[in-house]
Amino acid sequence: MIDELRHYIPAPGRAKALQDRFEHATLALFARAGIVVSDYWIAEASGEIWYIVRWESVAAMEAGWAAFRDNPEWLALRKESEAAGSLVERIDKTVLTRPAYFKPPR
Q: CA nearest 26: which of 90, 83, 84, 87?
């Protein structure tokens, strides 16, 4: 099992639109595609979005994102929501694995 930490930096002036897209459409598309978001945060001052996706493996992660990127519903939503310009300035992602010696508190 791996976790993928994703960090979205909104384009200038577009934080609210990016958050709205996640709230009203993106997260539902993720769920329908089997993309499991295990936690989600918004940085209040900057509007940056941080979330964690849980995957079975790196191969599953790569296949999951490829399928999502090619989803016609996502492509239409992205085109419509970005008609006035991109909502995202940059996306950072990091794959995380928990070492065997760490046991999270219960």
A: 87
Asked, for residue 96, whether it belongs to a domain, the answer is no
CATH of the domain at 38: 3.30.70.100
pLDDT digits (tens, 9 = 90+) for 44-86: 999 999 999 999 999 999 999 999 999 999 999 999 999 999 9
Cα distance from N-terminal residue to C-terminal residue, the chain? 19
Structure tokens at 101: 């010696």
**Does any domain span residue 104?**
no
The pairing of strands 88-96 and 2-10 is antiparallel
**pTM of the predicted protein model:** 0.90
Dig out the tokens for 64 from the structure: 């999951």
